[in-house]
Every structure is written in structure tokens, then in C-alpha cells.
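## Example record

The block below lists the input lines for one assembly entry, exactly as stored, with component labels intact.
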Amino acid sequence: MAVKKFPVEASHIMMFARSIGDDNQIYYDDDYAAQSEVGGVVAPPTFVQASAQFDPDYGLRPKIDGKGWMGSGANPTSVVPPKPAKDSSSKEGSSGGSGGRSGGGGLHAEQRYVYHRHPKVGDILTATSRRGESWEREGRRSGKLVFNESITEYRDQNGELVVTATSVGVTTERPVDQG
Amino acid sequence: MALKASDLNIGDTYSEVVVDDLKRTQIVMYSGASGDYNPVHTDEPFVTKVAGYPTVFAHGMLSMGMTGKMLTNYVGDGRLTEYRVRFTSQVFPGDTLTATATVQKIENGLIDLEIVTVNQNGVEVVRGAAQARVD
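Predicted C-alpha cells for the full assembly:
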């Protein structure tokens, strides 16, 4: 994933916080936030995942024309068989999200964040990703598992490192057995 | 409010129910806010007939986000220096999740926490660790 401009915006933080069920005032009330230790609205710990919104090639978002999307319209899927998301086949590694391949086979196995500081409203971040390690193992509930690591660095408008994110996606041989 | 190292002990725990009876609508909200529209999370015909799962399931990152709410409520805003998890089981609509942090280490103004989130059946769905600055 490469994101040239990821503007950290107040309404986006408010919506993201709502979606994780977090009613902390620090995420929507700038008067309250101004009086707090952090001095302004900051992003929740997992917010940088939403940089996918600003990745023009993000594979887990339907294109404007809706064509080629794997979700169901009139039928269970509009693409048979479901294609891997574009990001999963790129050399840069996946954009996080659900980790590896989409279309049902790819799942998010692991996520790590190192905070050099916490993003705040007004920041304009960039994100660059590189592939990390890859490994395989035999899974008890889903057959052979192939793991792929992707490391993304988020830097601010001054080039300073803000968050380092490591995502591990896993592709399973079959859907995970729920028994 | 930030934590004070002098008030903390190894083995201290903090727990929160981070979601009670997870609604499909909340998963839709997370898709919209995060930008991850993978249909396995919201599209029942797709996930059952194409992907082969019993029903839609939450984004791993939604579980991590909800678990993170417990963490920031415990350590304070802007205090985390590290947060990492493994997604150990899928989370489905109707699940109730309880997230718990346990203090592992207190040193040089930092605390190490172990994190476990379980569902209503006691099945672990997230396991991880975090580090935070304390006063």
C-alpha cells in the first residue's frame, strides 16, 4: 500500500470511534480535548487502518462503477470465481484490512502497532508498505496456512515517523472449521 | 486519567465488556469507517454461498478496535506506545466480548500489559500485549 495523503480529519475520527463503540469525548469534542493532556482530538489506537480510504487502489472497496466487485447483487456473487483483491497480488504487500486475499480465503491473523506518537486532527500522513516475512504451517481447523507479513510506516507532514504497523494476513486452505 | 506507577502492582487487572450482543449494523459501521468492505463481513449470501462460512463475521480490526477501547480507558488517552494482537477466533453477530488487561511489568515509567478478549462462551478471540506510559 502506498498512500500519498492521509489527512487525519475530525469527522472521520468521530465516525471511526462510533464504529468501535467508543464514546470517549476525546474523539469528538475539541473543547474537551483542548483541556486534556493530549491537547486536542487524537486518533483511537487502531485508526490508521482507515488509511485504506485514501489508497486509490485499495482492493477491498468496490470501484465506483461496482463492476468486478465480489459481493452479491442479484446473485450471491458478481464475480465467479471471486478474484483476489488487487492489493494481495501486489509486490508491496497487502493494505492491512483483512490481511491477505479477499474473497473468503484470506483472514487477518495478527496486527501490531508501535506508536511514536498518536495521530491528531490536522496531521497529513503518508503510508508506505513493504513485505515482511512469509511462513507456512499446518492448521488444525483450516488446513495449510500461508502467512504474509506487511509492514507499513506512517509519517507526518514533517517526515517524522508516527506509527509503524505490521499486519499478518493468512490464507487458509479451506474455511475455518467452527466446530 | 493516567495511571500512576506507584499505584500499580504486577498482576493487577482491568476488564470491560466492550460489546454486548454485537449487531450486524455495527459491523457495517466499521466497514464504512475503516474502508474495508470485504463482503465476508456484511454480505450474507456471499459469505454463506461463496466463502463457506455460517454467517458474516466481524473484521479482526473491529475486535482489536473494541479491545483498544478498554486499553485507552485504562491507561488514558495518548498513552499507548505499543499494541499488538493475534486474532485467535472469529467474532460473529450476537457475540458479547469482554476484554481484560493484566499488568506484567512496571519499569521506567512504562507498563507492559497482557491482553485477552473472550466471547460469551469463554472462547479467546483476541490475545495480545500492550505497553503504555504511566506517571
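Chain B has a mean pLDDT of 96. The first strand of chain B starts at residue 13 and ends at 19.
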